[in-house]
Amino acid sequence: MPEHADRTAGEGTGKPPGPQPDGPSDAELAALDAHWRAANYLAAGQIYLLSNPLLTVPLEPEHIKPRLLGHWGTSPGLNLIHTHLGRVIKARGLDAVCVWGPGHGGPAVLANSWLDGSYSEVYPDVSRDADGMERLFRQFSFPGGVPSHVAPETPGSLHEGGELGYSLAHAYGAALDNPGLLVACVVGDGEAETGPLAASWHANKFLDPVHDGAVLPVLHLNGYKIANPAVLARLPEGELDKLLRGYGHEPIHVTGDEPMEVHRALARAMDRALDHIALAQHLAREEGVTDRPHWPVIVLRTPKGWTGPREVDGVPVEGTWRSHQVPLAGVRDNSEHLRQLEAWLRSYRPEELFDRDGRPRPEVLAHVPEGARRLGASPHANGGLLTRSLPVPPLEHYAVPVDKHGAALHEPTRVLGGLLAQIMADTAGSRNFRVVGPDETASNRLDALYSVTGNAWQAAQLPTDEHLARDGRVMEVLSEHLCQGWLEGYTLTGRHGLFSCYEAFVHIVDSMVNQHIKWLRTARTLPWRRPVPSLNYLLTSHVWRQDHNGFSHQDPGFVDHVLNKSPEVVRVYLPPDANTLLCVADHVLRSRDYVNVVVAGKQPCFDWLGLDAARAHCARGAGVWEWAGTETGDRPPDAVLACAGDVPTQEVLAAADLLRHELPQLALRVVNVVDMTRLLPKEEHPHGMPDTEYDALFTTDKPVIFAYHGYPWLIHRLAYRRAGHAHLHVRGYKEAGTTTTPFDMVVRNDLDRYRLVMDVIDRVPGLGVRAASVRQAMADARTRHHAWIREHGVDMPEVAEWSWRG
Looking at the domain 3-303+329-370, which fold is it? Predict the structure, then answer.
């Protein structure tokens, strides 16, 4: 069978690689084949068998599951790769983890975890014997059992099997700042067609051979997706080879369908790849070579559904798309299918692989690593075992002074940048903190980070470049998918980070965050999974201050998407100023097992609260700003002005200022919400307010005019069960965007101070008649605004120069 050597393995490393080994002996190959056959038997058994796991009696329909679920087609290839990774890990004493891109092949990864004993360690009832094998088979894709995909329940996994396209980004994230770790990554030929995976091939330009670990991609080409050919599998080998070389990799090709020849070739390919990695790391770490390594990639071509039924009902199955899921679908009702299934299972010769009690024989386990080096037991795939607390410095060093509410302005994210820079400095030794983003770190006012570290970059540098560093821990690439994948892999392996992004474009990773939330929710139910650092978003350059970029940059809906997800996991914060942003950041960076979304502006913003007041307010999550309202004594408020978000807060306070002076007899309450989940009932979210607390804050029968950062219907959805919902009126973004002035954005969406004053007048009983002239003045101000900006191109002085009068 053809095997193509690593033709230019020394390119970019300063010297050619050392002599290549001859590979394992025939006896070692026989042991590898025994392990592979055992894994294939266990994978097929999980899909089909309810009982009779060792085929001690002839197979009968009652031994078969009533519903046949799972994916066979990719499983033999995953088993092959797992088998050979075990050999090199054990022989070389490697610390390794594997990301299984075709994670729908869950039977394979479960089978190997059971074989190496890690499965029985976390699930003692699934013992490594015949009884445990039967439980392993029965639970797969069965009610009360485990999913068909690789999932949090799978020992050794850090990648959800439904996440096609994200595997390589996760692998690189796991390798960052893990210099002693090998991260193998199986890339399926179907997922290789996705945009995120295509971008991920460029991640090798960000991998530092000195401080980071190594990623070994294995591009597994078995020819088909669910029903169609796979693009890369149909490329001529030479064309694919050039493509991968263009990405900066050195391909090693292994192709075949004869098991022993493939074993020999793949073993040699693994050795060659790992020799290449070891040499590149040695040159960088010991000899100071700074040329970017061209890392190896193994291209493995084997048939889809290999070793399964070649033909079913007169049509080919092995090597075709028909083997993708369940090759023999009618086993319980079709005697010929049942006969074929038994012949298929017995072709692995289970009596040679397992003893009478169902335990794997020694030769099957000859190349299985021990202890934490087993792929199913790697602590890097259970990152909470390795997590160290993040050193967040005292906020007093970064907080802005507030002697008077709303008297001064700061850029909140710039203030936060000082805190992040100190964290980056304090983790210089541990290297367990990174900031990622799509080319927006400086734009988002976080450039204080560059006083401590640079942007990770291994490609060419020019004299005009700034802030590039081979060992940098800020990571910028114009692919939100890649940023998300890096940070997911980084946090799941026990490190901390922050994803900074323009608010409108974080939607690109909607499906990725959805899968990560599902992962965290499930992991929280597994006692053996340790809590990992939270995935933290900082969304800035937000909808209300994208007046210069226009409609395309105006979308606050990511919050809606996240708040639809598991309440155990999601948190959303809208700090209204610099000090509240610091307090929120302090909390989320220390947290575990959450997805935290923080929305904060980068433009100058009024400082409303001093640090102590900000801490107390953020701890409450929502509260009355007594200094902003006009309530006195025991009299209940006539109306409540509520706000969430920095620009809505400014407009509410400007409206309160107007009402305080125009209608001083009005009893007005001002409520600010930082933690959006506080609006939910206690029964629906851990942070939710009990009805009694909500009613005391917002009242049950007074008009509540709520100025919200995003789409107004979200507030209604969160509060629809509350007693006062009928009196709730929400203003927010309603897709009225364009290129215009900052204040015109809020006017266009009826979120401006003048409209809020009019809303209060319209909704307080009896106030409309008494305050008709005030309402008219507010409407006139809006009309005057429209004329002013069209003549002058900037906002009216009364708006641009406004400050809180108190």
Answer: Rossmann fold (3.40.50)
